[in-house]
Amino acid sequence: MKLKTLMAAGAALAFGATVANAATLDDVKAKGYLDCGVTTGLAGFASPDDEGNWTGFDVDFCRAMSAAIFGDPDKVKYTPTTGKTRFTALQSGEVDVLARNTTWTLSRDVDLGFEFIGVNYYDGQGFMIRKDMGITSATQLDGASVCIQSGTTTELNLADYFRTNNMSFTPVVVEDSAEARQNYDQGACDVYTTDRSGLAAQRAVLQEPDTHMLLPEIISKEPLGPLVRHGDNQWGDIARWTLNALVTAEEFGVTSENADSMLESENPEIRRLLGSEGNLGGMLGLEADWALNAIKTVGNYGEIFEAHIGPNTPVGLDRGLNALYKDGGILYSPPFR
């Protein structure tokens, strides 16, 4: 009896876990849209136009998830969040996924109860100054006033860096990136610090971008990526493999323009990716063409990067570490099999 009881309890737990894990996907389908937490506005990554239409690198991840789930990239509600409000929004269920330049750390993953589903941008913290300051290194910033956003890893990194280099600074703490840019642009602080990708995005929309520069120092590792709540493995898998699909598509040359024709590829992994072979979509609780829909509507990772933050955009970022592993970067997806 004891063995039977244990077996029955195990079966019940397994069944219960399955039901619980389907909750977010079921909820999203029931309401008919994905609620995606984004930044309050960061050029190239997530920003609304005058009519409230959102575009950007992180926005396209949300659109890819929507396409994977609904076959439509536009079934997304965008919820702007600050450094302070983003985690509460995710914990409370106000948003289904958070995609807004958030650094993956142990405490956020474990203590706050989140699950980072991968890295979509490898970054590091840097410093932006006015060129007329005549400074060439962050080690010359002793006594500077520094604009910094509250509720971010940059606060602790900044304190550690100045302490290690026996320097002092005066913090100018702000709530969001728009306030930080405004304070810096108006001269309320000497230096603006955040992730280098964010600095490049902010410099692009300053009144006189060419009068500002990024210092060479990178003082931290900032692996940025989307995240979901702990406890819903299926939902985490959908988010994770949507990101992986975009990376894998670039690796195999599958683009928004040729995705349909690649359904007949002789490469087995491409066929599994696009749903013409195997049952990977069914494993996720999605249709066979989930990844095909995502790639067709937003493009592969490289297309998304180039469209919003690449060298030919105002943000002007090189791929760097975010190039594919075979092109000298560290971007890498597990196999689709």
From TrEMBL:
Top-rank taxon, per record: Bacteria
Keyword tags: Signal, Transport
All residue ranges annotated as the Solute-binding protein family 3/N-terminal domain in the record: 33-262
Residues in the signal sequence: 1-22
GO BP term (any one): amino acid transport
CDD domains: PBP2_BztA
Ranges in a coiled coil: none
A Pfam cross-reference name: SBP_bac_3
InterPro entries hit by this protein: Bact_solute-bind_prot3, Solute-binding_3/MltF_N
Family note: Belongs to the bacterial solute-binding protein 3 family.
The protein's name in its UniProt record: Amino acid ABC transporter substrate-binding protein
